Amino acid sequence: MLKKISFFFFLTLFTFGAASSQDSNLLLDGAARLLDAAEGRLAPSDADSNSGYSFLIINNTGFTIREIYFRSTGDAGWGANVLGSPLHQGRRATVRPGQLFDLASQYSIRMKDSGGDFYSKHNLIVGNRNIITMEIKDLE
Q1: Of the N and C termini of the chain, which has fewer Cβ atoms inside 10 Å?
Q2: Domain 55-138 class, CATH top level
Q3: Where are the chain's structural domains?
Q4: How, if at all, do strands 55-60 and 92-95 pair?
């Protein structure tokens, strides 16, 4: 526990020195990923051909997310909801899209909040660092 507190104290100090809010978000996203890895909460490796890809979703919408959908860019329909339990504001979750994407293929993600509003991002590239931060600006 002391290691976690020390890590977050260091990260907070380091984040205040970041050049922009985008730099801060990248640092925080990376820290969240490291913490998940340290606690064994990440899905199997992207290199595991049977597992497909996993995505770290960070909810900065201001609302609770109830549903998350993926599709390859250009597909007409969305896949099944891949979120097992509500994702509250400020929290993160690792999800699996339920389909295999080719490395460097483009995809879209859509989320539905507790009020029935949708958020989306399009033309995202699948890669080794699949971290998606959904914000109020992504409201449809």
Answers
A1: N
A2: mainly beta
A3: 2-38, 55-138
A4: antiparallel
- Contact of 42 with 118, CB cutoff 8 Å: no
Cα 24 to Cα 101: distance, rounded to the nearest angstrom = 29
Instruction: Look at residue 134 and give its three-state secondary structure.
Output: strand
Give the distance, in angstroms, between the CA of residue 53 and the centroid of all CA atoms in the same chain.
12
pTM for the complete prediction?
0.62
Tell me the per-residue pLDDT of 2-48, one tens digit each, with 9 for 90 and over.
444 444 444 444 445 545 555 555 555 555 555 544 444 443 343 33
Single out the residue of 76, 79, 86, 77 nearest to residue 112, CA to CA. Answer: 86
Structural contact between residues 81 and 67, judged by C-beta atoms closer than 8 angstroms = yes
Convert the pLDDT of each residue in 60-105 to its tens digit: 999 999 999 998 877 888 989 999 899 999 999 998 877 666 666 7
